[in-house]
Design brief:
The structure holds two protein chains of two kinds. Chain A is an all-alpha fold. In chain A, 46% of the residues lie in helices and 3% in strands. Helix content of chain B is 36%, strand content 18%. The chains are: A mainly alpha, B alpha/beta.
C-alpha cells in the first residue's frame, strides 16, 4: 500500500485498502457485520465497545498493518503536544488541549470538542475514523 | 503438545498474576530470586512456569501455568503475552486442551491467535463462566424472592453478558441491558448505560471482563450484585446493605484435587476454600468429553455449547454456588 496517506474526515476521503482492513478489524473485534462499521460511528456510544474491546481492536490493527499502536496514543500525543502548557485543570481540558485534540481528530465534529470537555470523556468521542486516521498516521511515520 | 496426546485426560490452564504483589507471591512458582523480590519486571521469556496441579483424578488433571506479566503488562504488550502463553503451553506437552484465565482469555484476539499456533483446542472459559453466572443469577433471584426479575446485565455487549441476558430472557425473566449492542435481537429493555440499567433492579449481573463501570449509588437498596468482572464492576465500595457475590464461583465435586499450591492459587485469585472459578472447569470438561472444538473462542459463544458444558460439568459433580469470594467482601 502506498504512503503517504491523507487523513480523512469522511468516508469518501479514505484509502479503500486501508479502510477495508480497519473495518474488518472492528467487525471481528466487536462481533459486527462489516456493514455496521461506519466511518463516523462512535465506537463506545454506537458500536458498544468496552475498554478491553479497544485492546482487541488495537491488536488486530497492529497485526493487519504491522504497526505498533501506543496505548492511549491519541490522547497521549495531545498531552505531549501541549508541552509545558497545562493539558487539563481539575479534569477539564484546557483550550490548548481542545485545539490539539481537534487537530489530532479531524473526523470528530469540532463542536463536540468544546469547552467543559473532561479528559475522561475523550474516548467517547472516538469514531471508527479516529482509528483509521491513527493507522494512516502510523503508516506514514513508518514509511518516512 | 500434540494431537496424539488428546483424550489422555490432561489439560493446561494459563493464568497471570493479578498484581505486581501477586506476581511476587505466586505468579510463577519457581521464580528467580530477583523477581520474587520485585527487582525485575519479569520480562525475560523464561518467566513462565507451572504453579499448581488441579483436577479430578481418574477424569482429567490440569497443570496451572503462569506467565509473569501483571495486567498492565498484559495490556501494554499483547504480543509478548502471546509468546509467553505459547511457551507456557509447551511446558505441558501432554495436554489435550488449553484453557485461559483472566486476561489470557482477552489479549491477542481472545484466544484466537494462540489457538492458531497450537494443535489442540484452546478455550477461553466463556461458556463455563456464562453457565455459572446464569445459574448463580437464578439463585440470587430466588434469594430475593423475585424469580421474574428484573435483572440488569452490565457488560451486555460482551459474549458472556449477552449469553446470560439471552438465557434469562428466554426463561421469561425481565432483563435490562446496558447498551443496544447487548440487546440486539433479544427481548430485553435497553438502558442508557450501566447506571441507568441497574436502577431499581434487585439483582444486577456484572458480566464485563473488567469493572469500574457501575456507580455504587446506582444500586437499589439491598441489591445483590452477581459479579464476574475483575476488577469488580462497581467503581467504589458497595453501599451498605448491598452484597457483591462471586458470579463464577463453582463448588467442586468430592475428589477434587488441588494440593497446597492449588489452594493458595485459588485463595489469591479471590476464592474461598471450597470454591473454584468456572473457567478452570471448561478445559477439564473439554478433555473429559474428548471434544475437538473449544467451547468458547474469540467472541464465539453459543447457547448450545453453554448447555452442553453445563450438563457435562454437573454430571461430573460441579455445581455453581452463590457465595462471596473474598474480593466480594472488598466490594
Amino acid at each position: 500500500m502506498p504512503a503517504p496517506y491523507a487523513l480523512a474526515t469522511s468516508l469518501d476521503q479514505v484509502d479503500d485498502a486501508v479502510w477495508g482492513k480497519v473495518r474488518e478489524a472492528f467487525a471481528e473485534a466487536l462481533g459486527l457485520d462489516e456493514e455496521e462499521v461506519l466511518f463516523e460511528a462512535r465506537i463506545i456510544g454506537e458500536l458498544g465497545a468496552e475498554s478491553l474491546d479497544f485492546l482487541d481492536i488495537a491488536f488486530r490493527l497492529e497485526r493487519a498493518f504491522d504497526i505498533k499502536i501506543p496505548r492511549g496514543g491519541i490522547e497521549q500525543s495531545a498531552r505531549e503536544g501541549a508541552g509545558a502548557e497545562e493539558y487539563e485543570k481539575d479534569g477539564v481540558l484546557t483550550q490548548k488541549a481542545l485545539d490539539l485534540l481537534a487537530q489530532a481528530m479531524p473526523e470528530v465534529p469540532r463542536e463536540e470538542i468544546a469547552p467543559g470537555l473532561k479528559a475522561t470523556q475523550v474516548p467517547e468521542l472516538f469514531r471508527v475514523g479516529t482509528f483509521y486516521n491513527l493507522v494512516v498516521h502510523l503508516l506514514n511515520l513508518k514509511a518516512a | 503438545m500434540s494431537r496424539r496426546a488428546r483424550g489422555e485426560g490432561r489439560f493446561a490452564f494459563l493464568v497471570h498474576p493479578l498484581s505486581p504483589a501477586h506476581r511476587r507471591l505466586l505468579g510463577v512458582r519457581w521464580v528467580d530470586p530477583p523477581m520474587a523480590l520485585g527487582l525485575d519486571r519479569g520480562l525475560g521469556l523464561t518467566d513462565v512456569g507451572p504453579i499448581a496441579q488441579v483436577g479430578l483424578p481418574g477424569v482429567a488433571m490440569g497443570t496451572v501455568l503462569s506467565i509473569a506479566l501483571d495486567p498492565a503488562q498484559m495490556v501494554a504488550e499483547p504480543m509478548d503475552a502471546l509468546v509467553r502463553m505459547w511457551r507456557a503451553a509447551q511446558l505441558c506437552p501432554q495436554a489435550g486442551a488449553v484453557g485461559l484465565g483472566s486476561l489470557c482469555a482477552v489479549v491477542a484476539g481472545r484466544g484466537e491467535e494462540l489457538a492458531a499456533r497450537l494443535p489442540v483446542p484452546v478455550t477461553t472459559g466463556g461458556a463455563a463462566t456464562a453457565w455459572a453466572l446464569h445459574r448463580n443469577t437464578r439463585a440470587a433471584l430466588a434469594a430475593v424472592g423475585r424469580p421474574r426479575g428484573p435483572v440488569a446485565v452490565i457488560g451486555s455487549s460482551g459474549p458472556v453478558g449477552r449469553a446470560v441476558a439471552a438465557l434469562l430472557a428466554g426463561e421469561g425473566v425481565a432483563v435490562v441491558v446496558d447498551g443496544k449492542r447487548g440487546g440486539k435481537g433479544l427481548d430485553v429493555r435497553v438502558a442508557e448505560g450501566a447506571d441507568d440499567a441497574a436502577r431499581g433492579c434487585p439483582v444486577v449481573v456484572g458480566a464485563g471482563p473488567t469493572g469500574g463501570s457501575l456507580s455504587p449509588g446506582a444500586l437499589a437498596a439491598g441489591a445483590l450484585l452477581v459479579d464476574v468482572a475483575l476488577p469488580g464492576t462497581l467503581s467504589g465500595p458497595a453501599p451498605a446493605g448491598c452484597t457483591v457475590l462471586a458470579g463464577e464461583a463453582v463448588l467442586p465435586p468430592p475428589g477434587w484435587s488441588r494440593r497446597g499450591w492449588g489452594r493458595l492459587f485459588h485463595l489469591f485469585a479471590g476464592y474461598g476454600p471450597r470454591q473454584v472459578f468456572a473457567c478452570l472447569v471448561e478445559p477439564l470438561v473439554l478433555v473429559a468429553a474428548g471434544r475437538d472444538r473449544p467451547y468458547a473462542l474469540g467472541r464465539r459463544l453459543e447457547i448450545d455449547d453453554i448447555a452442553d458444558l453445563g450438563a457435562r460439568a454437573e454430571a461430573l459433580g460441579f455445581q455453581p454456588r452463590l457465595a462471596r469470594g473474598w474480593r466480594g467482601w472488598r466490594g
